Amino acid sequence: MSRSAHPAGPRHADVLPEGHQLPVPDDLNVLDPKVWSATTERRADGVAAVGGIDVRDLAARFGTPLYVMDEDDLRARCRDWRAAFHNEEIDADVFYAGKAFLCRALVRWIADEGLNLDVCSGGELAVALSAGMDPARIGFHGNNKSTAEIERAVEVGVGRIIVDSFEEITRVAFAAERRGVTQKVMIRVTVGVEAHTHEFIATAHEDQKFGMSVADGTAAEAVRRIIKLSHLELLGLHSHIGSQIFDTSGFEVSARRVVGLLAQIRDEHGVQLPEIDLGGGLGIAYTGADDPKTPADIARELTAIVRRECDVADLRVPRLSVEPGRAIVGPSTFTLYEVGTVKPLPGLRTYVSVDGGMSDNIRTALYDAEYSVALVSRVSDAEPMLARVVGKHCESGDIVVRDAYLPADVTAGDLVAVPATGAYCRSMASNYNHVARPAVVAVKDGNARVIVRRETEEDLLRLDVG
Ligand SMILES: Cc1ncc(COP(=O)(O)O)c(C=O)c1O
Ligand SMILES: N[C@@H](CCCC[NH3+])C(=O)O
């Protein structure tokens, strides 16, 4: 069953922000494979299914809102990244960035699929360790790790600590010395790149909190200090330029400056550091308008860039590592919501309220992130209506999908789903308005299992001591 192309063209186009294009889809019932996980499909009865399970069954069994993770899709992405960076031509490590989403099941899957793990807090480290992740395959990040976090990381033997400041160099050296061990470290350097992404998720320009600057000599000074400390082994340099980036030009500048610093270190200290890490940040498709590169293309481009820069600097090509988070977990998941109320504003748009909101997806409010949405519990032949999908929180900025077309007959009780919510949605979820955070359910081959359970009223009251 499918609706024919809407002949009237965009409705309400005048209420979209200037320059904002929102083409009316030819068929609102089609689930665009660009944004939906690999096993998501529209079945013959018009209902969407994922991992072989009808979304209505998922809603009935587990409730809504619900993060639905497609395990096959997730694992395939892990394998694609691993294969792209680890083959006859390229020998590089992929560290999955756990900040995008982390739970024990996921840690086991990524480890199974040959990925390492980047954590950036004691809490993330605890999840990784409790899932049995080999500490040697963990990199520990953060611009202000506490002494307790550093002590624990050294104690359990994490493979690398990415130091972000002079204070941290001293703290890690002290923790290693007290235990009589040598801790491998990398230096997070700031390369002065303005990544083409939202200001809040760009991380390599000078005026922000992360890293030590290449330009002002702080990073070179960090190298001098680390080299003198016998309980630290300097593995290399790390640069992460930002997030949701589509072109590799930022990485090109970053690699050039990192390799430049490697050459400076060779000239000054007579050593070549063995590794560079170019961080994560590769973009995904949130809407049909986004065109992300494949892991194979990214691997080819990044390694070519590093080789070329090393050639120019007359350096051996160092081992490369990368830290994708969003690109691995983002597209694997959609959030399933039930529609509660529909408020048409003739000539403007229709507000479709769902049973979650900014507590399960803060990205729209925080970064102006764009998402798409589809009616998934049925198909519809109704004409497209310009909709804004909003949540149930006490904020007018509580928006999940700012602008999208939904069929005009969307009504209370319908299920809608927002794709590409695997990254930075559950991991940034809150209990605002004392709303319980949703469960994460993994689906595969007709089976569904809860990997993070839904919070209960008891959970919401648990910390209240008055
Ligand atoms: C150091 C570091 N590595 C990796 C990532 C992962 O980024 P993304 O999920 O955009 O790939 C981040 C987050 O932006 C980060 O700060
Ligand atoms: N949380 C951000 C990305 C920043 C990740 C950490 N540096 C997002 O949702 O896009």
UniProtKB/TrEMBL annotation:
SUPFAM superfamilies for this protein: Alanine racemase C-terminal domain-like (SSF50621), PLP-binding barrel (SSF51419)
Q: In which pathway does it act?
A: Amino-acid biosynthesis; L-lysine biosynthesis via DAP pathway; L-lysine from DL-2,6-diaminopimelate: step 1/1
Catalyses which reaction? meso-2,6-diaminopimelate + H(+) = L-lysine + CO2
Q: Which InterPro entries match?
A: Ala_racemase/Decarboxylase_C (IPR009006), DAP_deCOOHase_LysA (IPR002986), De-COase2_CS (IPR022657), De-COase2_N (IPR022644), De-COase2_pyr-phos_BS (IPR022653), Orn/DAP/Arg_de-COase (IPR000183), PLP-binding_barrel (IPR029066)
Q: Which keywords appear in this protein's UniProt record, sorted alphabetically?
A: Amino-acid biosynthesis, Decarboxylase, Lyase, Lysine biosynthesis, Pyridoxal phosphate
Per UniProt, substrate binds at 326, 363, 367, 395, 424
Q: Where is this region: Disordered?
A: 1-23
Known role: Specifically catalyzes the decarboxylation of meso-diaminopimelate (meso-DAP) to L-lysine.
| Name of the featured protein | Diaminopimelate decarboxylase
Q: Which gene encodes it?
A: lysA_2
